[in-house]
Amino acid sequence: MFNSFGEIFRFTTFGESHGKAIGVIIDGVPAGLKFDEEFLVSELDRRRPGKNRFATQRKESDTPEVLSGVFEGMTTGTPISIVIFNKDQKSKDYSNIKDIFRPGHADFTYWHKYGIRDYRGGGRSSARETAARVAAGAVAKMILRELDIEIEAGVVEIGGIRAENIDYEYAKNSPIFALDSEAEKKWIEAIDKAREEHNSLGGVVKLRIKNLPVGLGEPIYYKLDNILASAMVSINAVKGIYIGNSEAHKLTGLENNDEISKDGFLSNNCGGVLGGISNGEDVELEVFFKPTPSIFKPQKSVDIYGNEVEVNLKGRHDPIVAVRGSVVAEAMAACVVADMLFLNMTRKMEYIKKIYQ
Amino acid sequence: MFNSFGEIFRFTTFGESHGKAIGVIIDGVPAGLKFDEEFLVSELDRRRPGKNRFATQRKESDTPEVLSGVFEGMTTGTPISIVIFNKDQKSKDYSNIKDIFRPGHADFTYWHKYGIRDYRGGGRSSARETAARVAAGAVAKMILRELDIEIEAGVVEIGGIRAENIDYEYAKNSPIFALDSEAEKKWIEAIDKAREEHNSLGGVVKLRIKNLPVGLGEPIYYKLDNILASAMVSINAVKGIYIGNSEAHKLTGLENNDEISKDGFLSNNCGGVLGGISNGEDVELEVFFKPTPSIFKPQKSVDIYGNEVEVNLKGRHDPIVAVRGSVVAEAMAACVVADMLFLNMTRKMEYIKKIYQ
Amino acid sequence: MFNSFGEIFRFTTFGESHGKAIGVIIDGVPAGLKFDEEFLVSELDRRRPGKNRFATQRKESDTPEVLSGVFEGMTTGTPISIVIFNKDQKSKDYSNIKDIFRPGHADFTYWHKYGIRDYRGGGRSSARETAARVAAGAVAKMILRELDIEIEAGVVEIGGIRAENIDYEYAKNSPIFALDSEAEKKWIEAIDKAREEHNSLGGVVKLRIKNLPVGLGEPIYYKLDNILASAMVSINAVKGIYIGNSEAHKLTGLENNDEISKDGFLSNNCGGVLGGISNGEDVELEVFFKPTPSIFKPQKSVDIYGNEVEVNLKGRHDPIVAVRGSVVAEAMAACVVADMLFLNMTRKMEYIKKIYQ
Amino acid sequence: MFNSFGEIFRFTTFGESHGKAIGVIIDGVPAGLKFDEEFLVSELDRRRPGKNRFATQRKESDTPEVLSGVFEGMTTGTPISIVIFNKDQKSKDYSNIKDIFRPGHADFTYWHKYGIRDYRGGGRSSARETAARVAAGAVAKMILRELDIEIEAGVVEIGGIRAENIDYEYAKNSPIFALDSEAEKKWIEAIDKAREEHNSLGGVVKLRIKNLPVGLGEPIYYKLDNILASAMVSINAVKGIYIGNSEAHKLTGLENNDEISKDGFLSNNCGGVLGGISNGEDVELEVFFKPTPSIFKPQKSVDIYGNEVEVNLKGRHDPIVAVRGSVVAEAMAACVVADMLFLNMTRKMEYIKKIYQ
Q1: Would you say B176 and B191 are in contact if contact means Cβ atoms under 8 Å apart?
Q2: Which residues of B are part of a known binding site?
Q3: Which residues hold NADP(+) (chains A, B, C, D) (predicted)?
Q4: What domains can be seen in chain C, in order of their start residue?
Q5: What is the pLDDT of residues C28-47, one digit of tens each?
Q6: Most buried by CB count within 10 Å: which residue of B14, C34, C178, C345?
Q7: Considering only CB atoms, which chain A residues are within 8 Å of B255?
């Protein structure tokens, strides 16, 4: 709860955007997993801002330090702690907004909930926290790789422009994780325009989990799909999620039901989940991101004393949060799947005997 | 986990559609709450199928028996157990599908996950389980009423036809909880047509939480919105959720940000949640239901031995699950809010002193 | 939390001693376990009071009704709900103590904590609740039997008289679960004397878990021993617990350390637990019960209005709660072990591959 | 679970004795608490070994670094992360025991549970981990101080020699936290003798919680006493616990029941807990520590290949772990009480209205 996620594969994050460090403790990682530190760094690098003009120019230093849980390159079953120290803090960029609630940000709600707020950037509500999630996700992916389970994601819509084709391979090398090379061009134009206009754009991420065994997901309240929903909506700027065909609510039962043959399901409107349990098809979902709230145009707001003010932000920000959000969505999905794998191991007497006999 | 939901206000449900009973234990209910058993019955009645032609004709007997936790009309702080015995079981209706996986249902995944399945109806995956949720939600609502917090929901879209106006008052007396009297007519036509054609329809429920205090929701992984997402997607047939303006991903930051004045927010695109915390505006969300999987047309499938078969269902089913789903969505939202209220009480030293000094 | 115990094998109890029913939902039971209802009844029968003069004469009706989770004699992986309806309520026995706090009972603390109290008997704090635990323990034992894990317990001390020999087989047929036939005679005398004098006695239960695999228990805060401690001290009237040789704190390291040979440990002072993890030896512990608080001599107390009063109890009560407590201790231990077995399955990559490859 | 403790005030520790660092994330700390970093350091200093000859001479560097959750001297409601980097590692001291299971240690069980083990010192099972608990306890104590709740502990028995008087004030300045100045002399003699003989001693810690409000503790499975039991037995080397008069199991009901007058309870055999809930008297308990397993005499054991070996330890170790254990017991008790305070706030409608109306 609060700052933890997962039941067995369970991680807990900490840290503010402009504090000393952010980090994560990953508990419940099985012993005997080869720990791939290079992969950890490369995953953090995918999320890291400042790489190109499609992301915030604030240069975060995402060098992870693994403080525990790994011994001679292998996990030991004890908690893995990963810390990323903050270096490029530039607190002064934020001093003009010390007492002001930025529209679209969590300033207002943190202030009222806690009566105190780290006003330097987003504090705890900053997207910087998602680096800690990506670190957890990297460890989850190390586990999934051993079982050939793969998670892929990319951008399927930006600024209302929808991809026509879906190519997860293409996305891997796209600077904006675009799933469609045609749409990519229009998206880049739209992003450049938004940046010039000091504005920002919303977008949609599409995510796929491949090679999942049948049977993952715990009815009734820890289903594969409702926990994926929880995971995704917990990401900054995510406002919605859809599992499977995102038009399902417009269809009839006859259109939407996936018929079954000897060789498997004949369609995948359900997105690989039936009754909250994976059915062996690809798990597919879409994640809806609002536009970055940090824009550089005057906006009406109030300060902590109740005075009306005009907010004028400065600084460097993503014009589109969905792009980096794609990496975070992958990480969260990986953590959910790891957790579901572990839980499912305890759900059949047959499995229990397999281990203890 | 598994069959429990919530951290402090925490309920656990049990029961199969054609077993002896379904029920719920509600733990974490504070002592000293007037227990309104009539209200409990009326809430169950709103969800109950068989009331009119827009819902399944299977007559469920939803008479709740309160076995514990209430003494002389007041809650005592001990767990409240509510059981609903199954009476109208008609097991024979289902015998023809004993070894067959019905498309769109959880038969396939339960069988593969557990290696065994209560084949009489949906068993645990039946919508019948949602009666237990409505019972829990009724108790949550008893708490919320004392704080003037109100939860309302209704249908905003059926079969691709969208409401033009939203009137929560109207929905309360509509046989299909329609939020719009104009759309209601078209929806009823569409439902009647679907039933005649032995088909079913998807739909969208809109839900509003009024008078919520500022500050509910626990960052980072137990936010108000991601737990609402988890709650909603855990409901049978729900495939998606959206918090606030469901077009946010198509907007620019300038369009989407909600500016603030002395008198509050000037718009509510965020749906009353910023950074996962309630901001004092109405919390608003949409819930996307797939069409009822039980349709009465021949469908391709396989049996548990791997043989290809034609499925021909008989019986009585909702042509549109979203209608009754509206009541379940309210119940789940009420449980989430109660939980968030309790958690928030422990988040400020000021509150702690208020209780203990 | 509150009324639940366990992480994966997790049960939740409800019910008051003089309410309609008590019961338990057992969640996390794997599918494919033969459900032995006769065994469930026999376990409840062992705990049931009124069997002989060594236990309270209040005749409880402990007929369990299994409402869910079992289909055609097998567990299905869904929650198992077991309800025991209260029949022999005799509320009038308790009317004289409606407004009075009985010394040694929870009347005082429930009243102050909740501001309301079911004054008919102990309500929720009654030992009657332990029947629900025994039901959960019976299900846990069904799982353990499949792995040849056995849990035995008996009385090792009553009224300060200590057993000289320990014979778990003898205890099984002793009316007071005595571990020592010699001590049994003295204990029976002491119990008869206490009853005549309207007084009660404390005692100590000794418990053994046999055939446990090495490796159960999760460091650091969900160790086998600290969760056993939590389980035992949660039982009514238990005030203490000791794992292994209960003189360990008086020994030197040289005396207390258990040396190891090729054939296993050369002694078992540690009680089968090292670093919180089972080491393959018998797990052994002692559980310390205070004397039954219900005695039939005048005692000083106050009423809910703050007036000083003399309490004079009537009714039928155990002169020694440790005897039946022995059965409850077994049940709780069984639940802990089932939970630890399940958790341990997820702690090694080797196990994970065994299931998924 | 695993490496976390508590429900609302919840901490998670990480780190191995000879890894890079140990640390703790403390989640659930309310906002608006003055964070007393000096106090944190002083608490760690009380536990720190190497201070005098009664503790291990290994000099641990217990300088805590607060990485998050505190802003301008106040807690913000976000997770507080505290890291202590390991400096004085001296790995070579331990190389001779790389493949050997030290009797009384967790080497054997970690190896078998995980199939891998950080053989440098105790790794995760080292008492070094308790520094992280003391850090968490220091934060809990900061909260308790605001409510005048005080936790005190000291040594009441060493090597079988029992204190005759109990003086918590005296213990505060005793180098061995002795509760009795007379016994202290004998204990120091016994400790010196044990050290000379390369042996070690067990002991008993007595702990008191003062000024606790009535009503803390959540029946039935999260009682004040069973969670204290869990907390205490989770501490390295603790084998038992007793709440209240540790002779209760030898008494009769008449002797053991605490009668009540207008001015409170007339005795405190129950140790301040009735039915698992605090009754307003001092909460008192005893914690039983086995002797330090690290002794410097030859012992029989086996290595990881199954060969029988003679273990000859070198190095510097506590001859008596109970002394420093006293500080850890205080810390754990403080964390339990903070958690219980928060949970209790949600248990009465009256409290809920106090916050929200």
Answers
A1: yes
A2: 47, 53, 124-126, 236-237, 275, 290-294, 316
A3: 47, 53
A4: 4-356 (3.60.150.10)
A5: 999 999 999 999 999 999 99
A6: B14
A7: 291
